[in-house]
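Lab manual, section 2.4: Encoding a predicted structure.

Procedure: take the sequence of the chain (131 residues), apply the prediction step described in section 2.3, and record the output as structure tokens. A sample record is shown.
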Amino acid sequence: MAARVNYRKLAFEKYAHICAYCGFGVEAVLEVAHIDGDRSNNELANLVILCPNCHKMLDLDLIAERVVRTMRRRKKIADWSKRMKDAGTKAAETRKKNAKKKGKAFSDRARKAWESRKRNAKAYRPRTERA
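Recorded output:
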């Protein structure tokens, strides 16, 4: 009987820990797919790391094998500038705005909540205090 091969470990040692197709990167949910669909073929050239969605699409032939092989070979570079755009500017504006508010003891919402609690406490007295 042939020794059992840990193909997941092999793939994670060789390839980047992100989905080769879409770039999803939560390692705990990533799966190792057999490109040709043969689970007994555990050669490194037949393995690819995919997210569950892309793995299912590969199994259903919605993603071509050659595309997965090509994407697997490409260098993975995360370019967050496309997503972040003006986050730094917005964060700086928020900090300035909050610094101006620091002069107040309480925010308007906190003051309103405090006044409501005070008013409700006066309106409600336990039975022992009413008699």
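Check your result against the sample. The longest strand covers residues 31-34.
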